[in-house]
């Protein structure tokens, strides 16, 4: 879970949110993530265009940057990277 504070409110970016963006905005099949949060996106059949869409949505909604090379990362790893980059403690 990633906490990001902007304008006095806290927004949480979760694995579910990453999956939702990839399904609704990047066209991933809804069942591709079933039990696969630890599998790199490229092994799930997602490509760099899907990651570009994810990057745009996450930047727009949360002001966070998805890590470079995210196509080689799993959903869990992306969430961890976002947490490291944007967590406010």
From TrEMBL:
<protein>
    <recommendedName>
        <fullName>Carrier domain-containing protein</fullName>
    </recommendedName>
</protein>
<dbReference type="InterPro" id="IPR036736">
    <property type="entry name" value="ACP-like_sf"/>
</dbReference>
<dbReference type="InterPro" id="IPR009081">
    <property type="entry name" value="PP-bd_ACP"/>
</dbReference>
<dbReference type="Pfam" id="PF00550">
    <property type="entry name" value="PP-binding"/>
</dbReference>
<feature type="domain" description="Carrier">
    <location>
        <begin position="36"/>
        <end position="71"/>
    </location>
</feature>
């Amino acid at each position: 879970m990633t906490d990001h504070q902007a304008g006095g409110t806290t927004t949480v970016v979760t694995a579910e949110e990453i999956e939702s963006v990839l399904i609704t905005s990047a066209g991933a099949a809804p069942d591709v993530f079933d039990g696969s949060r630890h599998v790199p996106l490229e092994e799930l059949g997602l490509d760099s265009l899907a990651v570009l869409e994810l990057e745009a949505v996450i930047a727009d909604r949360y002001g966070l940057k998805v890590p470079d090379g995210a196509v080689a990362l799993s959903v869990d790893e992306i969430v961890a990277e976002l947490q490291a980059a944007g967590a406010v403690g």
